[in-house]
């Protein structure tokens, strides 16, 4: 067991990951060379200056060079190249991080810090590669190139190959350590900051909520239109021979409802494809049109409106229209031609929607809480901070919604 572990430790620098680390670091050292050459220009004019002044000039040039490297690392293109190179040669957590098109300022300076560390570490490894590795090879070959026949106990001939192998192994471990350090720092410095990650999560959550809302809109709108089309077509079939005029009007209502459903479907699908064109959604100001379309299908709807519908906030009015539409859809499915009651009350900062329809005998027990449409209404009401009460009340199915948008703020 100990032999296997020792062998694994000794062979660690020759593993492929170490060579990838070495390539990554040498690339950083190569990128560092132009900065070094530029820094050598002002340092070359210090030959005639005194010692303290030389030290000050060298320190200023060094700091200016580091600042220039860090500023270069803040560029978006440099950050993308750095992340791509780190993914291919370092691996680790950086593989799971996407490159943002326009990162915030904080993230750019963090990327500049990592770029500077990469170039400095690469400069060290590059310098050791062209100096220490040839020296280590020369020491390993010393017995073959400098053998003088002496067999003294202190003859350095026997020690030189050991020193050379030790230098090569130490250099391998140094590359592995620096590469592992950069691999650990890459996700933290090249990746988004905590604030950026939180903002991204919020955008994803908002997008999912919006898509969920669009799905509800599609269900409510198209489902309502198809229910109306079914009732209108059935009424036209029944009255075709008895009352052709009524059947003709019902078929016209079928056509209009189908067109409305197709328009709503195209609108929602366009939003899901992230198209830029937007259409105005219906609000409670179109309540008369909604009721008239349902009456054309043969439904008997008694409407009572109290208050000014145009006083509602646009967001509340739009959501309320969809909730009324869904409530009427459910009512028409289960009223079986009997009257449906709808009451809309608008207060200074409140809205109350009430819909009632008779239930066939036994249906209250089979549908105690409503279906998917009721779930959609509950989600809409919850998003507005209101309350909803849905269920059977005796032999009637009741929907009672109360929204206070001032209290919800």
UniProtKB/TrEMBL annotation:
Enzyme class, first EC level, given as a word: transferase
Region called Disordered, residue ranges: 355-376
Entry-linked InterPro entries: HATPase_C_sf, Sensor_HK_TwoCompSys, Sig_transdc_His_kin_sub3_dim/P
GO cellular component annotations of the record: membrane
Keywords annotated in UniProt: ATP-binding, Kinase, Membrane, Nucleotide-binding, Phosphoprotein, Transferase, Transmembrane, Transmembrane helix, Two-component regulatory system
Top-level taxonomic group: Bacteria
Positions of transmembrane segments: 21-40, 52-78, 119-142, 162-183
Record-annotated Signal transduction histidine kinase subgroup 3 dimerisation and phosphoacceptor domain positions: 210-275
EC number(s) reported in the record: 2.7.13.3
Pfam annotation, one family: HisKA_3
GO terms for MF: ATP binding; phosphorelay sensor kinase activity; protein dimerization activity
Keyword Transmembrane belongs to the record: yes
Catalysed conversion reaction: ATP + protein L-histidine = ADP + protein N-phospho-L-histidine
Classification via PANTHER family: NITRATE/NITRITE SENSOR PROTEIN NARX-RELATED (PTHR24421), NITRATE_NITRITE SENSOR PROTEIN NARQ (PTHR24421:SF10)
Name used for this protein in its record: histidine kinase
Organism phylogeny: Bacteria, Bacillati, Actinomycetota, Actinomycetes, Propionibacteriales
């Amino acid at each position: 067991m100990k032999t296997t572990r020792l062998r694994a430790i000794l062979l660690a620098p020759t593993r492929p990951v170490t060579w990838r680390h070495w390539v990554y670091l040498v690339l950083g050292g190569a990128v560092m060379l132009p900065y070094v050459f530029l820094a050598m220009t002002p340092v070359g004019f210090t030959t005639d200056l005194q010692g303290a002044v030389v030290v000050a000039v060298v320190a200023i040039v060094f700091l200016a060079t580091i600042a220039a490297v860090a500023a270069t690392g803040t560029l978006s293109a440099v950050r993308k190249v750095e992340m791509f190179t780190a993914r291919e040669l370092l691996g680790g957590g950086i593989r799971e991080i996407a490159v943002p098109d326009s990162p915030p300022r904080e993230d750019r300076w963090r990327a500049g810090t990592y770029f500077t560390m990469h170039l400095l570490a690469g400069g060290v490894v590059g310098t050791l590669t062209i100096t220490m590795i040839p020296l280590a090879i020369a020491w390993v070959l010393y017995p073959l190139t400098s053998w003088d026949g002496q067999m003294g106990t202190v003859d350095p001939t026997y020690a030189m190959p050991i020193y050379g192998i030790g230098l090569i192994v130490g250099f391998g471990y140094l590359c592995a350590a620096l590469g592992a350090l950069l691999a650990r720092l890459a996700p933290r410095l090249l990746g988004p900051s905590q604030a950026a990650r939180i903002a991204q999560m919020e955008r994803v959550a908002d997008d999912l909520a919006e898509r969920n809302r669009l799905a509800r809109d599609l269900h409510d709108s198209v489902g309502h239109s198809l229910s109306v089309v079914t009732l209108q077509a059935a009424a036209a079939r029944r009255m075709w021979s008895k009352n052709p005029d009524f059947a003709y009007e019902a078929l016209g209502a079928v056509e209009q409802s189908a067109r409305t459903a197709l328009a709503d479907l195209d609108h929602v699908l366009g939003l899901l494809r992230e198209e830029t064109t937007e259409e105005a959604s219906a609000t409670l100001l179109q309540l008369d049109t909604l009721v008239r379309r349902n009456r054309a299908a043969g439904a008997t709807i008694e409407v009572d409106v109290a208050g000014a519908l145009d006083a509602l906030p646009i967001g509340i009015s739009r959501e309320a229209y969809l909730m009324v539409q869904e409530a009427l859809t459910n009512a028409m499915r289960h009223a079986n031609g009997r009257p449906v009651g709808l009451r809309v009350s608008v207060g200074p900062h409140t809205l109350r929607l009430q819909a009632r329809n008779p239930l066939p005998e036994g249906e209250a027990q089979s549908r105690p809480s409503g279906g998917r449409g009721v779930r959609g209404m509950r989600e809409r009401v919850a998003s507005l901070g209101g309350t909803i009460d849905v269920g059977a009340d005796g032999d009637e199915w009741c929907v009672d919604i109360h929204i206070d948008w001032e209290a919800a703020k």
